[in-house]
């Protein structure tokens, strides 16, 4: 079976983290987001990966190369995101067999992908709390006969999760009409597959779409918790690792450091002395966390420095960020209500009572900077010493 992995999107809701990195390449535990899905497809027995790329395509090509984990990799380019059928159509010339379509910004539990592949043709389904917001499955016994978009009074809470396996013949059906919202949509291709094939559904045990920065935190919470602790780097005798902590080869943990897992300290990272790292934290390659720093439940991307006396909680720091001494992230509102963030110009609740900041690549904060909960700093922002930043920059 071939797997078409959609990885062309820019991820505008994930800005500024996607200023230089396509969303599917953002880090989730020890690999890029979309590599979790590629790995699940390989574990399920796919014999070819076809990556649909577009925005910052080179980052994807560089990571996967011509062969990934023993499986040949082909690329198809989608320059404009005109819809999911349009994206799969970009891969047309590579398709010659049954094929799976998986989304490079969704996380699936690998066992469900295996089950999907074993029951082809099929689609994935998920039990949603509010099915009226989704495409709800119409079933006849075990067979899916259609998907109704956002019905007012659905009979079931089973909604389509997007990922599917289509018969090879469907490659000829990708040239669909534009939908009402002006896109070429895979759902229209699926309608024909439902009519001409017995399509089954696989209920996903766990699934999430990663669209906004706090969902990147959630994705990391999921995948960091799945890592087994191991120490390959150097850990000083007077440092303490509690719970599942991975210290990769080439990472250094100095005396007086406490790391509470789940945590992943990647190769080349340097922590301490006397630092406290806790709760689902990823410290990327070459990250430096210095004396007296506390980092909690955060994603800190490659090359970022938080060198001294700073606090970072429930935050996502991009690449090559530098925090001045005593930079403090506030991650809790006095009124205890969920922290909001501005996403594409709209204030949105993150649903998280504890939520810190999102910092774009290359940002530098002056000493004693205070950052309010939910603040987003664009790539390359500079703050002055002693500044209190309550609004996005
Ligand atoms: P979206 O989340 O709609 O788009 P995006 O990933 O660029 O993010 P944002 O909305 O924040 O800008 O896309 C959902 C998935 O479908 C994602 O895996 C990308 C894929 N997709 C394509 O590959 N091509 C397309 O034309 C469209 C519309 C989506």
TrEMBL record:
SUPFAM superfamilies, sorted: Nucleotide-diphospho-sugar transferases, Trimeric LpxA-like enzymes
Residue stretches making up the Nucleotidyl transferase domain: 3-221
Functional pathway: Nucleotide-sugar biosynthesis; UDP-N-acetyl-alpha-D-glucosamine biosynthesis; N-acetyl-alpha-D-glucosamine 1-phosphate from alpha-D-glucosamine 6-phosphate (route II): step 2/2; Nucleotide-sugar biosynthesis; UDP-N-acetyl-alpha-D-glucosamine biosynthesis; UDP-N-acetyl-alpha-D-glucosamine from N-acetyl-alpha-D-glucosamine 1-phosphate: step 1/1
Keyword Cell cycle: no
Substrates-to-products reaction catalysed: N-acetyl-alpha-D-glucosamine 1-phosphate + UTP + H(+) = UDP-N-acetyl-alpha-D-glucosamine + diphosphate; alpha-D-glucosamine 1-phosphate + acetyl-CoA = N-acetyl-alpha-D-glucosamine 1-phosphate + CoA + H(+)
Keywords (A to Z) from UniProt: Acyltransferase, Multifunctional enzyme, Nucleotidyltransferase, Transferase
Record's protein name: Bifunctional protein GlmU
Source species of the chain: Halococcus thailandensis JCM 13552
Organism classification: Archaea, Methanobacteriati, Methanobacteriota, Stenosarchaea group, Halobacteria
């Amino acid at each position: 079976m071939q797997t078409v992995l959609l990885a062309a999107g820019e991820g505008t809701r994930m800005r500024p983290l996607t200023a230089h990195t396509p969303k599917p390449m953002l880090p989730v535990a020890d690999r890029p987001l979309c590599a979790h899905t590629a790995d699940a497809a390989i574990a399920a027995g796919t014999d070819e990966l076809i990556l649909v790329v577009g925005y910052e395509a080179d980052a994807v090509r560089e990571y996967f190369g011509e062969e990934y984990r023993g499986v040949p990799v082909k690329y198809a380019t989608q320059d404009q995101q005109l819809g999911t059928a349009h994206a799969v159509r970009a891969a047309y010339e590579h398709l010659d067999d049954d094929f799976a379509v998986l989304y490079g910004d969704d996380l699936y539990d690998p066992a469900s992908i295996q089950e999907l592949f074993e029951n082809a043709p099929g689609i994935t389904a998920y039990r949603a709390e509010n099915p009226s917001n989704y495409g709800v499955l119409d079933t006849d016994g075990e067979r899916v006969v259609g998907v109704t978009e956002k019905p007012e009074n659905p009979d079931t809470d089973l909604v389509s999760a997007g990922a599917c396996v289509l018969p090879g013949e469907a490659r000829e059906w990708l040239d669909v009409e534009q939908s009402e919202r002006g896109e070429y949509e895979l759902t229209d291709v699926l309608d024909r597959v439902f009519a001409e094939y017995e399509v089954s559904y696989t209920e996903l045990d766990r699934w999430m779409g990663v669209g906004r920065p706090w969902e990147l935190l959630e994705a990391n919470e999921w995948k960091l918790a799945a890592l087994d602790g191991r120490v390959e780097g150097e850990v000083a005798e007077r440092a303490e690792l509690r719970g599942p902590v991975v210290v990769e080869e080439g990472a250094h943990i100095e005396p007086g450091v406490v790391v509470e897992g789940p945590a992943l300290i990647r190769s080349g990272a340097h922590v301490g002395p006397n630092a406290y790292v806790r709760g689902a934290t990823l410290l990327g390659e070459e990250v430096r966390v210095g004396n007296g720093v506390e980092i909690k439940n955060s994603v800190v991307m490659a090359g970022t420095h938080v060198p001294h006396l700073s606090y970072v909680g429930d935050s996502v720091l991009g690449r090559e960020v530098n925090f001045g001494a005593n930079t403090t992230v506030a991650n809790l509102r006095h009124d205890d209500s969920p922290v909001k963030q501005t996403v594409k110009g709209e204030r949105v609740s993150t649903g998280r009572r504890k939520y810190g900041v999102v910092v774009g690549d290359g940002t530098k904060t002056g000493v004693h900077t205070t950052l309010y909960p939910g603040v987003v700093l664009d790539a390359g922002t500079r703050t002055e010493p002693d500044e209190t930043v309550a609004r996005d920059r």
